[in-house]
Amino acid sequence: MSGGARVSASRVPAERGAPIEFEFEGEPVGSYEGETVAAALLAAGVPAFGVTREGDARLPLCNMGTCYDCAVTADGERLVRACLADARPGMVVERNEAS
Ligand code: FES
After folding, report:
1. Membrane-spanning residues where (predicted)?
2. Is residue 99 in a domain?
3. Residue 97 lies in a domain
4. Distance in Å, CA 44 to ligand 1 centroid
5. What's 98's DSSP letter?
6. Domain contains 65
7. Which 3-state string (H, E, C) describes 1-60?
8. Cα–Cα distances in Å, from 9 out to 6, 12, 15?
């Protein structure tokens, strides 16, 4: 490694929005205003956002909207990218099943 400047990796304080709740597969999931659906589901320990044709779990990969591995059904709309969708109070989210 060369003698370049070191970068501090300290945490940046962040303010959280108000607590909210939505539904995933019929179960309540706690979240915060301004948080994405993916962040809330990952924090809740959801093991799969969807299922592949082979039956494998789908989980977020890129977390920036390009891979669709986080796709869910949200309020009846299929293929919603959970990493881009804001969690909203009362929204109904379901796993995306391979078709
Ligand atoms: S994680 Fe890749 S599109 Fe959401």
Report:
1. none
2. yes
3. yes
4. 18
5. P
6. yes
7. CCCCCCCCCCCCCCCCCCEEEEEECCEEEEEECCCEHHHHHHHCCCCCCEECCCCCEECC
8. 9, 9, 19
Asked if residue 92 has its Cβ within 6 Å of ligand 1, the reply is: no
Structural domains in the chain (count): 1
Cβ of residue 52 lying under 6 Å from some atom of ligand 1: no
- Domain assignment of residue 91, yes or no: yes
What's the token pair of residue 58? 């789908």
Verify whether ligand 1 is closer than 6 Å to residue 79 (CB atom).
Answer: no
Domain extent, residue 76, equals: 50-99
What average pLDDT score do residues 9-19 get?
A: 82
Average pLDDT, the chain: 91
Indicate which atom in ligand 1 lies nearest the CA of residue 71. Answer: 4
Joined tokens for residue 98? 């391979």
- Cα 2 to ligand 1 centroid, rounded to whole Å: 35
